[in-house]
Amino acid sequence: MNCPPPTPRQARVIWFAVSALAVAVIAAVLAGAVWGLGRTLRLLSPVLWPLAVAGVLSYLLDPVVALFACLRWRR
Predict the structure, then answer these.
(1) Residues 68-72: what's their mean pLDDT?
(2) DSSP string, 33-64
């Protein structure tokens, strides 16, 4: 097929359509990723909450352990 090249106006319309499609695909992929992450976190929340609480407690109690170490108390 010997089609003539598009005019400058047609080329702009084509590039606008392709760019809009790319933006829509990227937005759909990001929305799907956020949805999937939400589903995963909802599924794993019974495991993640105790781990998060343990992490916060260990962070808060680290100075107490350091004080006991300075007083030469064993762990």
Answers:
(1) 89
(2) HHHHHHHHHHHHHHHHHHHHHHHHHHHHHHHH
CA nearest neighbour of 24 among 16, 36, 13, 14 = 16
Measured between alpha carbons, how far apart are the two ends of the chain, in Å? Answer: 82
Decide: 65 and 75 in contact? Cβ < 8 Å.
yes
Contacts with 6 (C-beta within 8 Å, 6 or more apart), sequence order? 14
Condensed to tens digits (0 to 9), the pLDDT of residues 32-45 reads: 999 999 999 999 99
